Amino acid sequence: MSGQFIVTITPPTPNGDLHIGHIAGPFLSADVFTRTQRLKGARCYLVSYSDDYQSYLKRKALESGINEVTLAKVNSAKIQESLRMTDIHIDHWLESYENRHFEDAVQMLYEFGLEHNLIELKTSLVPYCEHCQIWGYEAFARGGCNHCGNSSDPSQCEFCAMAPDSPEMTDLRCTLCNQSLVYKSVERMFLKLPMVAQALRTHLEKAPMRTQLRTWLNDAFERGLTDWGITRPGESGLKLYKNEAHRVHTWFMGQAGYFAALKELSEQSASPQDAYELLFDPTTHVVNFLGMDCSYSHVLAYPAQVLLDQRFKFKNVFYTNAFLKLDGIDFSTSRSHAIWVRDLVSDACVDSVRFYVSLVTPEEQSENFSVEAFWAWRKHIFGELLPQIVSAISVPDVSRKMPHPLMLSEHETDLIRQWQKGAQHDDFSMKSIASVLMQLLEIIEVQLNAGEQPRNCIVLFALLSEPTMPRLSQALQQQLGFDERTAFNALLGLRQVSKDE
């Protein structure tokens, strides 16, 4: 056993289906991570949920004339189907609307903050559209971010990932009517991040994360943390008590959603192992996969929620991603500039989509998905090279004996090291793993074209591709000899494959 992990994916807003930009972000990375750690013998649970209290859901409902609850249910079902079609296997998906586990988890974190003076009531100025008679906390307002100047809602900026201060934003307008907003004094609850800033910084210094996030985090602390509004009276959110001041907004509730999913999973599972109990185990890592634009809530607010709570023992790991462009332009469903996951998987195949997306995933910086490049790549790899590989191993080689120890070239050994580095739980890279697989294919192609039998590389590709392309990997493994698979699995430190598999 190499460890135990709770893996989370930032909850999608159920105002539509998933496009390739979504999959290239947290979704596929979390699935590949989970499969990789399990292949190495770790205990993992992958959870997420439907963000049913998002104000963007409310806006979509108003624009479409569909009831919010109905819209959330329909799109949650679409999202889950798209995930299944992409072989992204989530252990438990929670629908948060009127879910008792979700409400209990939110209330637990909220009341702990109140009891420890980490949450307090303050009066603040909130944007309001007098024409539409709607509050502009998030989905219903847009203007210039006071931190970076780019267009943002008043919640979390997509460009700099900071939390804008709405009265300091420029040209803030209603997204429904485009009129300027006024400001009204409202009593709201605030999370006192400055109170725990030093302890939070010390805690986060130990948490594995990518360079981009580490740089952002250091900058955030240098700027100085400020109190973060966590309730939105009169808007979307979960109303905990009768007073509107306690209507908790969705970004405060993300961690509660993960906790609730684990609790619901534990109650529904026939296994004696309790997934929820892992939160109280110091050997557990909670691994959050998120877009860089969600950093303020996930990396600052969520650890702060439990920092003073001695019950929770888990360690944090954060894997952020930048945005993926489509043919050089930002994905935009409103402009119909998007490729829906279900359409691409149906037209191509799930393994080719997973592999190509893994190669272009924007782990550290923005990347591009080229439709033309994808189909050309797929034609060569899946239409030409892989059939050659299948043909090369379909005829049994009765004379082949496995050497003891296995004889690998220096290059093959180096590729194994690269794969193992990318597969580390604290330095994970789906992109690096995919790069190793491509290098193996390039070696195989050269050797096949030269009339050679690249058996070692084919076996390595079959085994190491399992987290990225589970169906192809299993098909290739079935054509390999049992002794061969067993020997290489032992070499790689992966789980043993039984004769019945």
Describe this protein's structure.
It is a single chain. 44% of the residues lie in helices and 16% in strands. By secondary structure, it is an alpha/beta fold. A five-stranded parallel sheet has the order 3-2-1-13-14, with helices on both faces. Strands 5-4-9-10 form a four-stranded antiparallel sheet. It has a three-stranded antiparallel sheet with strand order 7-6-8, with no helix packed on it. Helix 3 packs parallel to helix 9. The radius of gyration is 24 Å and the shape is globular.
Biggest sheet record: 5 strands, parallel
Count every helix, treating DSSP H or I runs of 4 or more residues as helices.
16
List segments where confidence is low: pLDDT < 50 over at least 5 consecutive residues: 496-501
The domain count comes to 3
- The CATH topology assignment of the largest domain is Rossmann fold
**C-alpha-based Rg, rounded:** 24 Å
Helix vs. strand class? alpha/beta
- Approximately how much beta-strand content do the residues carry? 15-25%
The general outline is globular
Question: Which superfamily, in CATH terms, is the homologous superfamily of the largest domain?
Answer: HUPs
How confident is the prediction overall: mean pLDDT? 93
What would CATH call the architecture of the largest domain? Answer: 3-Layer(aba) Sandwich
CATH top level assignment of the largest domain: Alpha Beta
Q: Estimate percent helicity.
A: 40-55%
- How far apart the termini lie comes to 21 Å
Number of strands: 17
Widest sheet: strand ordering: 3-2-1-13-14
